Inverse folding.
């Protein structure tokens, strides 16, 4: 469906800018709304509406689009990863966001997937505001670069400065790593003694077998001479 004009609404704002539609060769219509001089007031939830020139009614609104503005509050949280940035499939992974300056919540973003961020309310612990983002069973799909932001409840569309990005690397399965670790595990003193004992028994057995064969050959030679 191709509309003749579009309107862009923002939650909590009464004025609704409108623009005439541009048409592509395929007959589809669109309109570009440019937000000039972005500042802290730009953040919010936006929706698009379509209409025809012959109608005074607007379409059902589009899905909401959140515009987030960084740099307010002027905080740079700290992001750490436990047990480390390199994990194995199936392991548990925890990303911890911290800030010494009060923030109400933390948002965790993955590079390239900003539309599906995670959100946690902060807790005060050891004079630090913090939130944990836990993944009980890591899969290869979680590998990537992560960063966290702080936010205040009164201004949910304003975010702090980003933390230092952390790249998560997912290696092979736990079973493979355990097997390789077991193969390279050094032997204890008792295991080494047992190993030498088995080798000595094998040598003694081989020596005894050789003596038996030689005895049989000597017996046959003597029997022929008789």
């Amino acid at each position: 469906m191709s509309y003749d004009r579009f309107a862009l609404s923002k939650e909590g704002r009464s004025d609704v800018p409108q623009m005439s539609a541009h048409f592509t060769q395929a007959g589809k219509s669109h309109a570009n709304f440019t937000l000039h001089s972005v500042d802290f007031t730009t953040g919010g939830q936006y929706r698009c509406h379509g209409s025809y020139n012959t109608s005074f009614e607007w379409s059902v609104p589009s899905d909401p689009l959140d515009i987030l503005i960084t740099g307010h509050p002027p905080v740079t949280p700290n992001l750490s990863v436990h047990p480390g940035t390199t994990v194995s499939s199936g392991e548990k992974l925890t990303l911890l966001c911290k800030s010494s300056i009060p923030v109400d919540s933390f948002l965790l973003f993955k590079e390239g997937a900003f539309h599906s961020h995670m959100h946690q309310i902060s807790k005060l612990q050891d004079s630090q505001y913090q939130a944990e983002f836990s993944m009980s069973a890591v899969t290869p799909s979680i590998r990537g670069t992560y960063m966290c932001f702080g936010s205040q409840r009164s201004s949910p569309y304003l975010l702090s400065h980003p933390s230092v990005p952390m790249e998560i690397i997912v290696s092979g399965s736990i079973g493979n790593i355990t097997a390789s670790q077991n193969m390279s595990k050094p032997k204890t003193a008792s295991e080494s003694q047992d190993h030498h004992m088995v080798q000595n028994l094998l040598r003694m057995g081989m020596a005894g077998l050789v003596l038996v064969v030689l005895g049989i050959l000597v017996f046959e030679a003597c029997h022929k001479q008789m």
